[in-house]
Design a protein that fits this description.
Layout lengths: L1 H22 L5 H5 L7 H15 L9 H22 L1 H10 L11 E3 L5 E2 L8
Antiparallel strand pairs: 1-2
Helix pairs in contact: 3-4, 4-5
Length: 126
């Protein structure tokens, strides 16, 4: 009986940790631009230009609607990643918290198990 309770508790804990990890952070701008964390401004700008030209909506003429839609979504993510990494303050905030805007870390999270919203605790936001 005790083993069953331990197994249930362990499974519930793993599910909660996985759900928190999925919603807790912004998309990784380093991964989006395919640059290392130590990349300088010129490397970030070069990667941004290369990817933005490849996925720009004007370059998608004549392709299927599905391909165009995916390229537009990717293009917007590339722009957001560049916006984060090209601004020194946003980059510093992302490196420290996982959010370009540190206030996002204190916003209410989507409902978790049991239907209750999960609000981060730890004092007032910045």
């Amino acid at each position: 009986m005790a083993r069953r309770h331990c197994a249930i508790f362990l499974c519930a804990t793993l599910v909660l940790l996985g759900a928190t990890a999925c919603v807790a952070r912004d998309a990784d701008p380093y991964k989006m631009l395919d640059v290392s964390r130590g990349a300088g401004e010129t490397d970030v700008k070069k990667a941004y230009r290369k990817l933005s030209l490849r996925f720009h909506p004007d370059k998608q003429m004549g392709k299927s609607a599905d391909v165009v839609e995916r390229a537009q979504e990717r293009f917007m993510k590339i722009q957001k990643a560049y916006e984060t990494l090209s601004d020194a303050e946003k980059k510093r905030n992302y490196d420290a918290t996982g959010f370009a805007d540190p206030r996002d870390a204190y916003k209410e999270q989507p409902p978790g198990p049991g239907g209750r919203s999960q609000q981060r605790r730890g004092g007032s936001g910045p």
